[in-house]
Amino acid sequence: MFDKILIANRGEIALRVIRACREMGIKSVAVHSTADADAMHVRMADEAVCIGPPAGTDSYLRIPNIIAACEVTGAQAIHPGYGFLSENAAFVQAVQDHGITFIGPTAEDIRTMGDKITAKDTMKKLGVPCVPGSDGGVPDYETAQKVCEEIGYPVIIKATAGGGGRGMKLAESAADLETAFRTARSEGKSNFGNDEVYIEKYLGKPRHIEVQVFGDGKGNAVHLGERDCSLQRRHQKVFEEAPGPSISQELRDQIGKTCADAVANINYAGAGTIEFLYEDGEFFFIEMNTRLQVEHPVTESIYGVDLVREQIRVAAGLPMSFTQDDLEINGHSIEVRINAERLPNFAPCPGKVTQFHAPGGLGVRMDSALYEGYSIPPYYDSLIGKLIVHGRNRDEALARLHRALGELIIDGVETTLPLFDALLAEPDIQSGDYTIHWLEKWLETNLQ
Ligand code: MV4
Fold first, then answer.
1. By the 8 A CB rule, do 424 and 402 touch?
2. pLDDT tens track of the chain, all 448 residues?
3. Of the residues 10, 227, 291, 309, which is catalytic?
4. Which of 74, 136, 257, 313 is most enclosed, with most CB atoms within 10 A?
C-alpha cells in the first residue's frame, strides 16, 4: 500500500480523499494555489505545497507543478478528485512516465470515453443499449439527411468532443437539420478543436439515470446500482438520489449486470459512471465518466461502502474489498448541492462566510470545506458543500433532508439553499415523478 498520496484538487473532494487516506493510515499531501493558502484542504492534509497563482490554469491544471509537488514530497500516487485533471489522459500518461501511480483508470480508457463516438461504439460492442442514431461520425450534411430519414425526427446532433451538455444541437424536423448540423460542427471545431459530430434520436422526456461501476483493473467488476440525477439546471446537477425512484430491483440487476460485464471486459480500473437516458422503461447509453463523481456519496450511503478507499486499494494492486454478492441496498439517500450563488439567476457569490453550522444527527452527512471566517475565492467552481441524507426509505430521507436543512447555517454569502425547502414542498418531488426538464420548468414559474 502507498504511504503517501497527493491530492490534485481542492474543496470538499480534497477533504473526502484526505479522510479516506487517514483511515487507511496513508499520509496526504495537499496542493493549493496562492488563493487557497487558507483553505481547509491545506489545513487538513499532512503536508501542503503551493503550485501556483489563483487561476486554475496556472495551478490545479498545471501538470508539471503537480508532478514536481509529488517528487518533492515523495508521494507515490495521485488522486485527482473530480473536475480539473481527473479525466485528462495526457496527465495520466505524464504521471506514469514519472513513476507515480494515477488513482483511476488507464489513459487509454479515459481517452476512449472522452471521445463520445468511440465511447458509444465501445459500449455498443460490449452489449450496452444505446440511443438509436448514426453509426459513428457523420461526415457531411447529405449523410446527415439519410441518417435522419431512417431514425426519424426530432434528432439531436452532438459533438464527439463535447459531453455534459456542451456542443449539442436539436433539430425538430428536416427543415432545422442543415443549420443544426453545420452549427454543431463549427461549435465543435471552435470549442474543442474537433468538428466530428454524431446524430441521435432525440428523447423528449427521459430521466437521467447513471450506473456506478467499479473495476479492479484485472477483469473483475461490480455495479453499485443507479443514481437518478434528473434534477439539473443548465447541465448542473442540483438534487441526486439513490436508488432511482423509477427503477425496480429487477431492472437494476439487469442494467447493473450489463454495465459491470462491460467494464470487466475492458479490464477497467477504479470508479466509473455509465450515464443513461431512461424513458418508457428503457435505458439508452449516452456517456461514460471515468472519475469519481460529485454525487458518489448517495451510492456510498445506501451500499455502506467507501468508494475512495476502494479506488486507492485497486490502484495499489489490491482486490476490491467486496464482491457483487456482498452488495445490498439499504434504504434511500438524497444529496443536495449547495452553491455560493445568488438566486434567482444563480450568479456566483464568493465572499466571506461569517457564520457556519453544519447539521448532524442520524443519517446526515455534510461534505464541505467551509469554516467560519473562510473567504470563498472567486476563481473556482461555486460548489461549497453537499448535504447528504440517508433514511430507511425515500420518505424518511426526504423528512431528514428537511430537518437537516433547518439546522444548516451559512451566512455572509448567498447560497442556493433556499431552493431546497421549496423543492421538498412539491408533490412531484415528494412522489419522485420528474424528468430532466422538470427543474428548469419549475424554476421558470417559481423563481423569475
Ligand atoms: C440527449 C437528450 C435527448 N436525447 N440525447 C445533455 C447532457 C449530455 N450528457 C446529454 N444530454 C442530453 N442528451 C438524446 N438522444 C437530452 C439531453 C439533455 C439532458 C440529459 C441529462 C440531463 C439533463 C439534460 C438536460 C437537457 C438535455
1. yes
2. 999 999 999 999 999 999 999 999 999 999 999 999 999 999 999 999 999 999 999 999 999 999 999 999 999 999 999 999 999 999 999 999 999 999 999 999 999 999 999 999 999 999 999 999 999 999 999 999 999 999 999 999 999 998 777 789 999 999 999 999 999 999 999 999 999 999 999 999 999 999 999 999 999 999 999 999 999 999 999 999 999 999 999 999 999 999 999 999 999 999 999 999 999 999 999 999 999 999 999 999 999 999 999 999 999 999 999 999 999 999 999 999 999 999 999 999 999 999 999 999 999 999 999 999 999 999 999 999 999 999 999 999 999 999 999 999 999 999 999 999 999 999 999 999 999 999 999 999 998 6
3. 291
4. 313
Q: 37, 25, 34, 27: which is closest to 7 by C-alpha? A: 27
Q: 341 CA to middle of ligand 1, Å? A: 24
Catalytic annotation present for 291: yes
> What is the DSSP annotation of 353-396?
--EEE---STTEEEE----TT-EE-TTS--EEEEEEEEESSHHH
Phi-psi region of 311 (alpha: psi -120 to 50; beta: other; left: phi over 0): alpha
Cβ atoms 276, 308 nearer than 8 A: no
| Residue with CA at minimum distance from ligand 1 atom 23 | 436
CB atoms within 10 A of CB 60: 25
Listing DSSP states for 213-262 in one string gives EEEESSS-EEEEEEEEEEEEETTEEEEEEES-TT--HHHHHHHHHHHHHH
CA pair distance 444, 448, nearest whole angstrom: 6
- Ligand 1 centre distance from Cα of residue 165 (Å): 6
Radius of gyration of the chain (CA): 22
3-state helix, strand, coil in the chain (%, to 5): 35, 30, 35
